[in-house]
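wait is this the right file?? whatever heres the structure
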């Protein structure tokens, strides 16, 4: 005969569970959000911030670490002895005054504006460009909105698959608030199509590569940001909750390779900014990338994020190098030669650990698809740079991205054996290598 648990114990347990949920979420919808700088003495301090479920703003691991906090979280940091300086005291107000001044993201593209531009490109350059719907935002799968995930394929034969040509994938806006990451992929599309008939080097790239560009992987989240929620990071999956604080999945923790490896590189809790979802590829946005990658032989992938001025590559889930680490470092060296971005991985202590992320899956999953040299580029110095900085951020990333497209068609033997003294003559300036080395 089973013993029945007394009602008092049941109620006590339920109360404790609710208390854990309520206190672990850190902040709630409608609270003021600030950007603060947290001084760290060692990169391992970032793990402590992750364990506190802080919303770490930058991917870099250099002090001070920038963190998005509520008033309660700021008080908690100071109570525990962290040295904290307020950088922006109200991120929503800052967004309204400096970015969303016309209620339409100013010079940044909204979802509708992005789609309109991509449609215009496809119509103007039908011989080299195809606009392709590769999937749906979460809200569309639930009948709540009608936003698709759009890709532009650029090639001299856009309707054909040419096995001898290298495929390259360029993705923007995994994270909704990183709105500048839509602008760089769009600029790449404009450059490759507009200059195709004018520039022999651009023509050679288009004629000898199959280039796929996805400017906005997270259309629902991006629309939510444009609607006045500038610090929203995740997609718009409600996770079964009506409270926005418990909604959303971090798309860059939802990929299948080492998904859920631990609870610091991603979170099992829906209130966390790094919530990984209920299962690998639970989200339609991540599924869209999976399906695309499994049907094309990509060589290199670039995922644009903001911010930190970094070129990042695997591994992210552990502090170890891949077996192709020398190649990744060469790619970082090429990309950073012009813009001075710092390059490296988690082992180099320039990025905190993540698991279930895009780059690790692109490289690490080699059963359902081929190995891809996946890299993340962290652009600029803030999620939403002033509109006046958009042209410069495009400029400092455009030619490095085109060099990645160029290198992709050269093959691994080229990367293994290339003489970098000769290859880098086209670049001016000097790359910043890992400062911890």
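ok assuming it is, sequence goes like this
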């Amino acid at each position: 005969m089973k013993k029945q648990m007394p009602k008092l114990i049941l109620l006590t347990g339920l109360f404790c569970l609710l208390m854990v949920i309520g206190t672990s979420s850190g902040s709630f919808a409608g609270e003021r959000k600030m950007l603060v700088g947290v001084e760290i003495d060692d990169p391992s301090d970032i793990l402590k911030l992750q364990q506190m479920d802080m919303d770490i703003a930058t991917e870099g691991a250099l002090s001070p670490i920038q963190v998005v906090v509520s008033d309660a979280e700021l008080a908690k940091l100071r109570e525990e002895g962290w040295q904290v300086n307020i950088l922006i005291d109200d991120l929503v107000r800052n967004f309204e005054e400096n970015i969303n001044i016309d209620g339409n993201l100013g010079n940044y593209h909204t979802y509708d504006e992005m789609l309109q531009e991509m449609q215009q490109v496809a119509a103007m350059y039908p011989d080299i460009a195809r606009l392709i719907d590769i999937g749906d935002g979460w809200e569309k799968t639930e009948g709540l909105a009608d936003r698709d995930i759009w890709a532009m394929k650029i090639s001299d034969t856009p309707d054909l698959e040419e096995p001898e040509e290298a495929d390259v994938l360029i993705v923007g806006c995994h994270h909704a608030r990183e709105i500048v990451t839509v602008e760089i992929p769009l600029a790449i599309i404009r450059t490759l199509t507009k200059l195709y008939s004018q520039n022999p080097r651009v023509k050679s790239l288009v004629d000898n590569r199959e280039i796929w560009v996805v400017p906005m992987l997270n259309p629902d989240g991006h629309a939510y940001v444009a609607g006045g929620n500038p610090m929203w990071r995740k997609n718009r999956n409600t996770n079964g909750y009506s409270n926005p604080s418990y909604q959303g999945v971090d798309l860059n923790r939802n990929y299948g390779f080492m998904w859920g490896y631990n609870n610091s590189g991603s979170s099992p809790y829906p209130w966390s900014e790094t919530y990984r979802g209920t299962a690998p590829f639970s989200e339609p946005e991540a599924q869209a990338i999976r399906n695309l990658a499994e049907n094309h032989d990509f060589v290199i992938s670039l995922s644009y994020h903001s911010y930190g001025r970094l070129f990042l590559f695997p591994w992210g889930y552990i502090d170890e190098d891949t077996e192709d680490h020398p190649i990744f470092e060469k790619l970082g060296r090429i990309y950073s030669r012009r813009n001075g971005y710092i390059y490296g991985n988690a082992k180099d202590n320039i990025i905190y650990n993540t698991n279930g992320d895009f780059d690790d899956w692109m490289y690490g999953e080699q059963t359902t698809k081929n190995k891809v040299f996946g890299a993340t580029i962290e652009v600029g110095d803030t999620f939403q740079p002033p509109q006046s900085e958009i042209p410069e951020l495009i400029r400092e990333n455009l030619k490095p991205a085109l060099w990645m497209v160029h290198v992709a068609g050269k093959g691994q033997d080229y990367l293994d054996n290339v003489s970098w003294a000769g290859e880098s003559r086209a670049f001016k300036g000097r790359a910043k290598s890992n400062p911890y080395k």
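Residues 29 and 245 are 6 Å apart (CA to CA). so i think its the right one actually
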